[in-house]
Structure formats: C-alpha cells, structure tokens
Design brief:
Strand order of the largest sheet: 12-11-7-10-9-8-17
Number of strands: 17
CATH class of the largest domain: Alpha Beta
Largest sheet: 7 strands, mixed
Distance between the termini: 59 Å
CATH architecture of the largest domain: 3-Layer(aba) Sandwich
Structural class: alpha/beta
Oligomer: single chain
Helix content: 25-40%
Shape: globular
Order of helices and strands: EHEHEHEHEHEHEHHEEEEEEEEEHHE
Radius of gyration: 20 Å
Number of helices: 10
CATH topology of the largest domain: Rossmann fold
Strand content: 25-35%
Amino acid sequence: MSRLRVIVVGMGFMGLLHARAVRGLRSAELVGVVDLNETAATTAGESLGVPAFTDLAQAIRESRAQAAIIATPDPSHRRPTEVALDAGLAVLVEKPLATTVEDAQAMTELARRQGARLMTGHLFRFDARYAQAAETIRSGRLGKPFLFTARHWSTRSLGARVGEVTSPLWHFSIHHIDAIQWISGASIESIDGAQALASAGGSSAFLAIGALSSGAGFQISTGWTLPDTGGRSTEFEAHCERGVVRITFAPGGGLALWDETRGHEVEATAWPLIHGRIEGLLRREIEHFVEAVLDGTDFVITPEDAIAAISSAVALENASIRRTAP
C-alpha cells in the first residue's frame, strides 16, 4: 500500500494534533516536524519519534516529504506554504488559508503555476451534520432559505492562549462563514452591522448581520466569554420557507466529567483520542487530503472556496466597530 510522506509545520496545539493524526493513518507516514522554536520542534520530534527541524527547506530535502501540513499561527501561513509549494509538495493549510485576500490569492496562484495540490482545512466540511444540512437545503424540500444563523461561544482561557495571534472572527467565525457560503451556495454580499467587542477581563466577541447574494439574511455571533466551568456551545440554523435545519452541539461532543471542584468538557467530536489514535473530524479531514493526493482526486474544499471565506471575513473585519468594555 502506497503511503504519503508528510511533514507538519508548526508545533503548537493544532500542529501537534495534526502530527498525531497523521501518525495514526495507514495511508500516510509522518516523516518530520518543523518549528522555528528549536525547543518546540525537538520536544515534538522526540514525543512523536520523528526528526525535528527548524528550517522547512532542510526538512523537505532530508525527509523526502511529499506533502506538508501548515499549522502555524493564522497570519503566518503564506511563507511556509510557498516554500512547500515551490518544492512541489501537496499542502494542507489549517484554516484560514490566510488572513488577507492578497496572501490567499498569491498562494493559490503559486500552486497553479507549480501544478501542486493546495487545500484548506475547514472541519465543518467533514461533519455529517453540516453535510446533511447542505444536502437538505440544496434538495429544495424545505423551500428557499431566507435566514442563516451561527454562533459559537468558548472560554476566556482559550482567548488567553490564542488571543495574541488571532481573534474570534478568524478563530471561530471563519468556520461559520465557510459553512454558510457552502450550504447556501451564495456569498456574503452586504453587511448591515458588525462589532468586535473586548473587555479588560479577557472576554472577546464578534457579532455581524447582513445579507447573502441570494437575498437570504445571515447572523453570526462568536467569542471567548465563558468561565472554564463549562457551557461551551455551537449552533447553526437555516430558516427556510417550509422548515428549519438546526445543528446544535457542545464543541466537546456532549461528554463532560465532574470532579469535586468543577466540570470538565472532554473532546469527543473534533479530535477525540480513541484507542490511542486521533479520530473525529480532524482525522477525516487529513485522511481525505492524503487519499485525494494519492489517488489524484478532487478535494472537497477548493482554493476558491477558501478565498471566498477569507474575502467575506476581511469585509466583515473592515466593517467592524471595535469597542472595549470596562
């Protein structure tokens, strides 16, 4: 059985998850990890049993990698992606592809010139609930959609961990933007209002309303505002002429444990650990990428999809009123 030789770039939280997921695939072989921080790279390499590098070009040469997964902070995706594409590797970029339309277009154009494969990791595309929602809406059985709503609320401790390099818009809302545009088959066309709200205590939120090119309305609300004692939630609704599609779940998958001090949400949907292997949506996403590269088949997420999500996110960001609460 042919196995794709994969390196993972960026040994933060998501990069380590990607590396562990690759290691659990029969169709792929993890051949190296890369991070600019030597300690982070070395620690990850030792724990995963693979070579560690601080230089991506060197990693590609010495590991003979065929594909790269880019899991660096959101604003820094372009450079490692270009290095990998220039070397002829297939590349999976953790969402968003970039945080500017210019970067996203440059990466996509380079992939086209090089004849290389490029995919962005939007996890909701691999969630059966969202896939079935898309099929239901497109079938027309509920009539024409007239309103899409999406919300996701997480903990302030998440913001403390990632807030210096991203925001609720780019960390959470980009998922919902892609989902709304994918499921509706339309794009965000007008913005009636948008707000980026932060507090001195570490809470941060993003809120937006507007209309799609189909004429349907949309409403998005996301942020890290909750205590660690729980309560994280995600909800997506498509209101149609003859019915409603609703997706509602706790990000952990509804599994919680309680000890004598507080409750603990246990990840059971996106990247649960089952019998020592990363499973869930992340595994499905990476497995799809690997098998599509090996088989020469199409990705379910095109570069144009990724650029469309980024274009809408940038428009929402530019339209946002920024406020800090006392």
